[in-house]
Structures are given as C-alpha cells and as structure tokens.
Amino acid sequence: MGxxxxxxxxxxxxxxxxxxxxxxxxxxxxRKAGHRAGAESVREVVDACLDLGIEFLTLYAFSSENWxxxxxxxxxxxxxxxxxxxxxxxxxxxxxxxxxxIGRTQMLPDSCRDQLEKVKxxxxxxxxxxxxxxxxxxxxxxxxDAAQRIAxxxxxxxxxxxxxxRETVSAHLDTADFPDPDLLIRTSGExxxxxxxxxxxxxxxxxxxxxNWPDFxxxxxxxxxxxYSRRHRRFGRV
Length: 238
Ligand code: IPE
Ligand code: IPE
Ligand code: MG
Fold this sequence. Notes:
- The protein has helices at residues 20-25, 31-52, 71-95, 110-123, 139-155, 166-171, 218-229, and strands at residues 12-16, 56-63, 97-102, 129-137, 183-186, 205-208.
- By secondary structure, it is of the alpha/beta class.
- It is globular, with a radius of gyration of 18 Å.
C-alpha cells in the first residue's frame, strides 16, 4: 500500500462496526471483551479521519434491533458506552472533534444520556471532524419518525402535500445537518445494511472488509479510502 494521498477523499464515511462478538469468541473470551477491544478501533479510525481531512464519520454503535440481544450483553454495551464517553470528552476536545448522535437516544439509560449530552455540549464548537454515533438507531424507525413529523406539519396547514420533496424528507431525518455518506464500510464480511441509513446511502460506495471490527486498524481504513478514490461514481449518468 502506497502513501500517496488519494485523488478524491470522501467527505463523509459511515461504518458498520461488526464482528466484535466473533472476535472475542474466536479467542475464548466473553463477547463484551470484543466490544471493549472495538473501542480501540474507533480511536484509530477517528485519528485516520483527522489525518485524511474527512469531515464526517458516522459509526453504527447500537441498532434498534440490538435491543433484542440478551440483557447481559445490552448492559455491558451500555456500560462500555458510558465509559467510552467519559474518556472521549477530553480527547475530542484536544483533537477538535465534535460529537453528534442519530437514533432514538431517549431509549438509552439515563446515565448514558447524561454523558452523551455533556460530550455533545462540550464539543459543539469543534470543527476538525464530526463524529456521529448511531445509537438505538434504525433507518426504518428514523423514516417513520420523519413521516410523522411531516404529516403533523401538513395537518396543521404548515406544509402542502404537493410541496413535499426529497429535500423535505432529508430535512426531517436525524441526519438533516449532515451530507449523505460517500463511502460505507462494513467489517466482518457481512453483505447487508442491517437497517442502517437506507435513505442516505442511496449513492454511497461500499467497502466490505473481511476483518472483525477489533482487527480493523488505521491501515485498513486508509486502504478503504484509497479504494474509494479509484471508484467512478456515476449517479445514473453515463
Ligand atoms: C458489532 O459486533 C457491535 C454491535 C452490534 C453492538 P457484534 O456484537 O454484532 O459481533 P458479531 O457480529 O456477533 O460477531
Ligand atoms: C449491525 O450489526 C449493528 C451494529 C454494528 C451496531 P449487527 O450484528 O446487529 O447486524 P446483523 O444482526 O448481523 O444484521
Ligand atoms: Mg454483528
């Protein structure tokens, strides 16, 4: 792999961080050890984005469907999230990183939400990179919520049905403030979206890594970006 900068760098990269459980199980460790190890990959990928000048990084950390996991695993994930946020406040401050979230975060335990609100407020003015954590996130839920909000505006006469455009829909999604991702990375070799950013990924390029998330390092991320820079995005044109 060369060190030459890619000819075109994505503005926004989205990542489905998958394979923590398998990483742990293959080492005879409890699944939560995999989630803990995955936090280190997050740090590496954040640093890689800062090096490369990527503006937005969305990380799928907990899906709507992940609430169906055993209570023990959910508890472990929530504790890790809280710990992660406690350390990120300072780190993101130093690195000029802004934290935002998408998803039904009202469903998270109070202790996580408090910590989230604190880091979001503390980093609100940072400008180098926006890290968007998808938490209790499901794209179908997000689109459903957006449809409800749009319908409410129609019901009170604030919006005419014929004025609902693609932009209206985008503006009512949790991602309203962010550009669509240019590149989607999924680790652990799975070839599916798992209810992630269905609307926003319409024209994203996909990069699937066979590595489990804790084995995904800075060099792997750089490889994905280099691969992206060789793609020809056509958006339906010739
Ligand atoms: C991804 O790893 C992290 C979350 C979904 C929270 P998994 O926990 O899905 O790991 P595998 O896919 O079972 O190996
Ligand atoms: C997707 O991974 C969700 C996150 C990475 C947070 P899953 O492991 O939950 O997805 P499936 O169940 O394999 O589709
Ligand atoms: Mg998984």
